[in-house]
Design goal:
The chain has 212 residues and is mostly beta strands. The protein has one domain: Beta Barrel (Porin). Helices cover 7% and strands 75% of the residues. It contains 2 helices and 10 strands, in the order H-H-E-E-E-E-E-E-E-E-E-E. Strands 1-2-3-4-5-6-7-8-9-10 form a 10-stranded antiparallel barrel. The longest helix has 11 residues. The N terminus is likely disordered.
Length: 212
């Protein structure tokens, strides 16, 4: 992780001549969204249903031609058998960009992003709180579909349990002009801790964004 952050810092300090190649390209996207979904939580052989809802603020940015950084904050509630569990998430990441960067305003271009994401999760139930940090490998591919429409596929897996703790999502964005975006996303994830415990979630996200 330290090597990744060092590479980002070096890239961000490139002289203006190197950054001239970015002229006219998207420098970043910020978005706010509402999410809703459900979860199946299996504990000691018994499966419990849960309802999920929450809000998020996120963004990814391009400090140099082939480098991206990302950040997000999320506030979420999980209702299990009438009991509400609150969760707050902070996430920071970065990595490399491949391809011709997507222009979300026109729906043109295509790109792939590969990097790491550090996440801090704090969960509270009444006065009881717990927190956990973890690092994911994340991959994204986005492609312009024309007429201001962009589609995307996103995958991540926990570095502590690669390919056993995964999330997947698919999204569509539509430009309304002037950098303003609306979009929707469907995602699902699965986490397996051992033979008797696992969590599966799925849900949709709707939101607005701005590309600059």
């Amino acid at each position: 992780m330290k090597k990744l952050l060092t590479a980002i810092a070096i890239a961000a300090s490139f002289p203006a001549v190197a950054l001239a190649e970015d002229a006219g390209k998207i420098k970043g996207v910020i978005s706010a969204a509402y999410m809703t979904g459900d979860a199946d939580i299996k504990l000691a052989g018994t499966t419990y249903d849960a309802d999920l809802s929450g809000t998020s603020l996120s963004g990814h940015f391009y400090p140099a031609e082939m480098v991206y950084v990302s950040a997000s904050i999320t506030s979420q509630e999980m209702d299990v058998l009438g009991v509400t569990i609150d969760g707050d998430t902070k996430s920071f990441g970065g990595g490399l960009v491949f391809g011709d960067r997507v222009d979300y305003r026109t729906g043109e271009g295509s790109e792939q992003r590969l990097g790491f994401d550090w996440t801090d999760v704090e969960v509270s139930l009444g006065n009881v709180k717990s927190s956990e940090d973890y690092v994911d490998i994340e991959y994204a591919v986005e492609a312009g579909l024309g007429d201001g429409v962009t589609g995307g596929f996103y995958f991540s897996t926990d570095t502590d349990d690669i390919f056993s703790d995964n999330s997947y999502s698919f999204a569509l964005y539509k430009s309304l002009g002037g950098g303003l975006l609306i979009g929707g996303e469907y995602g699902f994830s699965k986490s397996v801790t051992d033979s008797n415990n696992s969590t599966e979630t799925s849900g949709i996200v709707i939101g607005v964004g701005y590309a600059f």
